[in-house]
Every structure is written in C-alpha cells, then in structure tokens.
Amino acid sequence: xxxxxxxxxxxxxxxxxxxxxxxxxxxxxxxxxxxxxxxxxxxxxxxxxxxxxxxxxxxxxxxxxxxxxxxxxxxxxxxxxxxxxxxxxxxxxxxxxxxxxxxxxxxxxxxxxxxxxxxxxxxxxxxxxxxxxxxxxxxxxxxxxxxxxxxxxxxxxxxxxxxxxxxxxxxxxxxxxxxxxxxxxxxxxxxxxxxxxxxxxxxxxxxxxxxxxxxxxxxxxxxxxxxxxxxxxxxxxxxxxxxxxxxxxxxxxxxxxxxxxxxxxxxxxxxxxxxxxxxxxxxxxxxxxxxxxxxxxxxxxxxxxxxxxxxxxxxxxxxxxxxxxxxxxxxxxxxxxxxxxxxxxxxxxxxxxxxxxxxxxxxxxxxxxxxxxxxxxxxxxxxxxxxxxxxxxxxxxxxxxxxxxxxxxxxxxxxxxxxxxxxxxxxxxxxxxxxxxxxxxxxxxxxxxxxxxxxxxxxxxxxxxxxxxxxxxxxxxxxxxxxxxxxxxxxxxxxxxxxxxxxxxxxxxxxxxxxxxxxxxxxxxxxxxxxxxxxxxxxxxxxxx
Length: 545
Hints:
Layout: H1 2-9, H2 38-54, E1 62-63, E2 72-80, H3 86-96, E3 112-115, H4 123-131, E4 135-138, H5 149-166, E5 175-176, H6 188-195, E6 200-201, H7 209-212, E7 226-229, E8 235-240, E9 243-246, H8 255-265, E10 272-277, H9 286-297, E11 302-303, H10 305-316, E12 319-325, E13 329-335, E14 344-348, E15 350-351, E16 354-361, E17 364-365, E18 369-373, E19 376-382, E20 386-393, E21 403-407, E22 410-428, E23 436-451, E24 459-467, E25 473-476, E26 484-487, E27 509-512, H11 531-539
Parallel strand pairs: 2-3, 2-10, 2-11, 3-4, 5-6, 6-8, 9-10, 21-27
Antiparallel strand pairs: 1-14, 7-8, 12-13, 13-20, 14-19, 15-16, 16-17, 16-20, 18-19, 21-22, 22-23, 22-24, 24-25, 24-26
Helix pairs in contact: 5-6
C-alpha cells in the first residue's frame, strides 16, 4: 500500500493536505470512517493469521505497543514562534503532575515545545526544564514555501546551528515539526531529518477544518508511529507520529480527546499514540488543559515526542532469542533494548498442545494475566530480561467441590479450578429447572459468584460451570448427577444458628452468615471452612455471637 501511494504522490507538491484532500480527484480518506484505524486493524489481522497458522509448530511471543500495557498515550507538543509561552506552559504541566511522579515511568505530565531559535528562554532555564523531562526542539522554518532537497538541507543546517548556539547545554534535537508543515515531495523531509539526527516527525497534520468537520479520528489509518518509506519501499529510520489533534483545525475539546481515548481504552481497541499541537506561544491554553484532564482521568500518560522516540527505539531493539519448543514447553530469552522500561510480553494462551498453565523466569514463577486482545487470548506479563520457560497442558479442566455461604436473601458460591477459566452458576428452586444464572467472564482459578434476591427459607439447586480460554468446559456436578443444593436462612432462624448439611451430592460445604458473629477468617459474620453446622456437630453446642 505504501509503495503504491508513493508512486501516486511522488510528483505531488504542496502541503501535506494535498496528499489527502483531493484537488480535482476524490478524497483518499473516508471521513465517515476516520475513527477506525484501518491500517492498524489490517496489520493486527495479519498478525493473528500468522499466530494461528504457526500454532501447530510453536507459540510465537510478542511485545505490547507501549510500556506497562498502556493502550493509549498522549504526545503533548506545541509550537512557539518566539512568543515565549513555553516556560509558563511547562510550569502548568509540572503542577498537573502527581507528587513524586516518575518521568521514566511516564507518570508525570510532560510536553515538547518546537521553537524558533529566538524564543525568550535562557540556556539555563532550558537545561533545568530538560533535566525535568521536558523537551525543547527546533521548529524548522522553510518560510512556509515549497522546498527542494537542497533548500531544505540548508534550512536544517543553518537553523540547527543557531539553535545549538542559543542553547549549548541542550542535546541536538531528535524530533521535529516544520513550520507550516511544508511537505513538498514524498521523502525529502524524512531523509534530511535523518541526516541531521532527527528521528521522529510530527508533521502529518489533521487539517484543514472545512475538510475534517470536527470529526475525531486517525486520518492516516493508524494510531501507531511507523517509519517512513522511500518511493522504492526502502525504510527511512525516521518515525512518523501523526498530529491527530490541533488547535487550528476546528476541533472541539474535550470531545476530540475523549473520543480518541475512549475508543483506545474501550471494546473497540483502537490503540494509539495521539499527538497534540497545542501552540506554546502563550502560557495558558484551555484546550491543552482539557486534553491533560481527559488523559489523567483515564490513567493515560502525557509525554514528550522524545519520550515516545526513546520508547520506540527501546521496544524495537528488544527481542525474543533462543526460542525453542518441545511440544509442551516453550523456552526463550528476553533481551530488552535500552529505553524499553515497562516492556510487556504476550504469549499465546492456547496452542495445539493445550492451554498455558505457568510461566517461569530463571526458575521463579512469573505473575501473568490472561486477556483477550483482538480475538486472541494471551498471557500478558512483565518482560524483564532473562530466560523463560512457558508450560502448556492439555489435561482436562477440573473443578473443586463448591462451598456456599448463605445469608439474608443471598448466597456466595466459591470453587477453584486447575487452570484459568471463567465462572458461572446456574440455579433454581427445582433440580430439573436451573433457569437462573450469574456469571463472570474474567479468567481465574479462584471463582466466586454471588446469588442475590433469594427467598428466605427456600432450598435452591445449582451447578457451577467454568470454561477455559481453549473453550474446554467443566461442570460440577456433571449430569446425570443431581445438582448441589443449599437452603437460604428463614426469617425465624436465630443469629448464630446453622443449617444442617443440605440435600444433594455429599461433600458440598455450606456456611451460614450469622449476624454479629466472628468465627472465621472472613471477618464479622463470615464462618470458617467447616461452617457452623460442622462446629455444632463437633462441639455439641451453639457458638456465641
């Protein structure tokens, strides 16, 4: 797709919008579907196909897009045309940050300011802000005119030298937004940027207002940074991070950022690094504040372009090595690249050999969660460097004998399983008609569900069911055995009294909540594993509340 686009547009001159807003030709972006990152979804489909086709050979591990399994990140930037709002804006971001936050862990609110070299900020001030994790970088200026490769090279060379002279304490810039987002041919900008050590570009701009009509979206079809490609398909080692939010495109806030983040965090799974340009010409910016508030309320990091670049380099320099598979155990070694803090690994939870049952690193068990991402179940874990062994098992799913804690108009049913699976209880007042149900889809080995609005003094019959990520189902008790049963305490049951062993298969454990008693590890009114009935039989007397 990229090579074909390169051939189509290699002769197009003008601003970036010319690549998408058709002059005489129709638009290349369907804005009715711009909220869908179609390129990302297609890539994920391809990855899922590869995993599925390889499952008979070996499970294939992967890394997650962002640190600590973040599903979205806001990249906060602004352009300061030597008007001097940068320092004030950054002081606001500092005050917006949680006390004791970690810049390395993306906990602090941070931003990039792309500036003309004449910005009223001293070298000392710039160095102090840089030490706090803010990024000051050059706002390259072509005079808003189309460029040639030669003129663009001259712009970068002279203006970077001026920036270095103005701020000798700062490292050379490694990210860029060009003034007026001039983009005169297919790849000269990316090539010149790479020549001068700039490796992340935020020039692609969701603009103009009359075209986008206040519709939030990802107009390149992707919310994820990716490298540029030359006209022949050769990759250029510069990332494109599209500016999907601007303060000059007629977008409403906070509705724009809310829509992007909700789609990333919600069931759609439209993950992304969403770049904002909230101009830093003035210290205060209402729309910048709205973006920060929206991100913080959802636990989404707000970072600089440089932080994003360092993460991308670190993640892409990370690898799984020495991967081997013996049919039941996957062995591998995680090598983390510099800057890959919070690296998250993903392992297929289901293979032809069965279901993942354990992960070990250097012989020590690793905590993991099982999550369904884009239709595929993964074991998700913190990918610290080291050697791992991952075990898969095809043995039957097994459930323990359930235990019931019955109280006023409710009962809690608990059981365990030998591997991660979901939870369901079907129940009713007749053993032949278990028409009521309660469930929880979250995979676990320690199951607990609460049945509510029960009738006092009534006997209920039930079965517990669990299904693992491979679709294997277990039922306790399985037909043709009759269901378990329990009786809800009636209104005449005195506090502290206990019900006897309920009818149904022997071995079901029953507890009764007795108001005002503390008889077990569950706290006030929660009875121990044997239950009051067993205590009555053992001690021959009523417990005291």
